[in-house]
Amino acid sequence: MEGSLYIYAFCDRPARGATLEGLNGAPVRFVEAGGVFAAVSDAPSGRLRPQRRLLAAHQGVLAAIAGEVSTLPAAFGLIADSEDMLADAVSQNAATLTGELERVAGCVEMEVRLGWDVPSVFEHLVSVDEPLREMRDRMVAMGENTPHDLRVEIGRRVERVLEHHRAEASALVIEGVSEACREIEHLDPSSESELVRLTALVAKEDTEAFESAVERVAERFDDTHAFRLSGPFAPHSFVDLHLDLSSSRLAA
Asked: Pick from 79, 96, 85: which is nearest to 36 by CA?
């Protein structure tokens, strides 16, 4: 597909801080249409696979751009068949893109994760929840004769206790960081041990204040918990672009 362009992001102006290299080392340039600039490079040939090196290149470009200009990140694999098609799509959606750029102007994304730092989540829940502990003791006493209904009841109790702790922890974290950010998005926990996973839209000048807020929140939890703060990133979680540019070239 000669002339096709790989798209990294849409920006309010070109980033000029450094020479950027994208997928397969292709130079990144900025195409303007309707007052919006698209960060692009020549698209790789063939089907795209989300290989680590390609994802790293995509993220590297986004990180460099987001550090300099307001950025609407594109999902990995977004390709326009030609520069004319890209210009037409951007022009037709200029008002939406401009509005979104204004919403995230001067902001980055920070991610906060809180999880249990314990050898076994189940045993920890048993230690803090008496009804669950009693059911576990009954199961141990019965051994292989434990009825199916009791095993199901234990599973349901674990889910209820887990959800209770997640809701409680989430409320504390949000209360502690909300004044240091503009928006918060909840993400699904990535594992049983994870209690809170959220991303925050933070003004660049407030990143230190946000980090301090997370540190203060962490002091409210005991040593069975562990916090992880990462970022700044381009604001992926706060952008949802729907542009009709071309057929997908992502490999299944």
From this structure: 96
**Residues of the chain scoring pLDDT < 50:** 1, 247-252
Compute the residue count for the chain: 252
Q: What is the pLDDT of residue 249?
A: 46
Q: Look at residue 124 in the predicted model and tell me its pLDDT.
A: 93
pLDDT at 207: 94
Are 170 and 186 in contact by the 8 Å Cβ rule? The answer is yes
In this structure, what token pair is assigned to residue 119?
A: 């050898």
Q: Provide the angle, in degrees to the nearest 10, between the axes of the packed helices 94-103 and 83-92.
A: 70
pLDDT score, position 1? 42
